[in-house]
Amino acid sequence: MDPSAPLTVVQGVLAVCAVSGACYGFLKRQSPALMAMASTVNCGIAGLTFFGLREYIVSPVLVSTLSTQQYVRRRDQFAGLTPRAPITWGEIRSEKLIDTAIASGLAGGALNAWKRGRVGLVPGIVTASLICTLIQYASNELSLARIKLVSKQQAQQVQAPQVVPAPLLSRDPAPSSSQKIMDVLSHVAPIRRLSDEEYLQMMEKKKIEVDKRLHEVGDGLKEWEETNHRRS
């Protein structure tokens, strides 16, 4: 049995009583509160019968016997196990539809037969099953739409690019003291500020000259050692 079954039963009964009583009072142009109180007994019996059958009899039987993905997942949840597969959109859309159809048919048929006799058995089963299944389907669709909306909002927040303020993009770095000195000297002496590429090219040429000079020094030392070796 679902651990939340008692709370589901109570919430379901209260919802049925409140909604049906208020709607009936509004249609009859009477006080919705008074009509809700007057219909509490009838709606309470119907709601208690339906939700009690679904949560305590129908759902446990279906969960323990059916092997579809929805009922396997619910079976794992009832046992405190991690679901074997993530829930799909189809499962959300069809959540408890079979449970609701069976339970509402049994409750509607029994109550209508009790009120009208055997003649009301079949009409009660068909009418109650159809109405409650449509309500359950509409509730599932609302849950599905809400989940999609929240998922879309979260995806937009993750994918939204971070906008850098325009002043930060166009603001030039403050010149250093050496740059200020070079600017002043460039006006009074033939001094030109080198760009990064020009500076790298100049350093590369100096490196080539230094390597060439070291190579010449190495050759000279080698000749000197050979000369001393011959003399000795």
Q: How would you describe this structure to a colleague?
A:
It is a single chain. It contains ten helices and no strands. With 232 residues, the chain is mainly alpha-helical. It has two domains: 155 residues, no CATH class; 55 residues. Helix 6 packs antiparallel against helix 7. The longest helix is centred in the middle third of the chain and has 39 residues. The chain is rod-shaped and about 135 Å long. About 2% of the residues have low confidence.
Report the uncertain regions: 168-172
Q: The biggest beta sheet, please?
A: none
Shape: rod-shaped
Number of strands: 0
Could you tell me the radius of gyration in angstroms? Answer: 43 Å
Count up the domains: 2
Q: How many helices in DSSP terms?
A: 10
> pLDDT average, as an integer?
76
Tell me the strand percentage band. under 5%
Structural category is mainly alpha
List the helices and strands in order: HHHHHHHHHH
Distance between the termini: 108 Å
The residue fraction in helices comes out at over 70%
Keywords: Membrane, Transmembrane, Transmembrane helix
Transmembrane segments: 6-27, 119-138
Task: Please write out the topology.
Layout: H1 5-27, H2 32-38, H3 40-65, H4 69-78, H5 89-93, H6 97-116, H7 121-159, H8 166-170, H9 177-188, H10 196-231
Helix pairs in contact: 1-2, 1-3, 3-6, 6-7
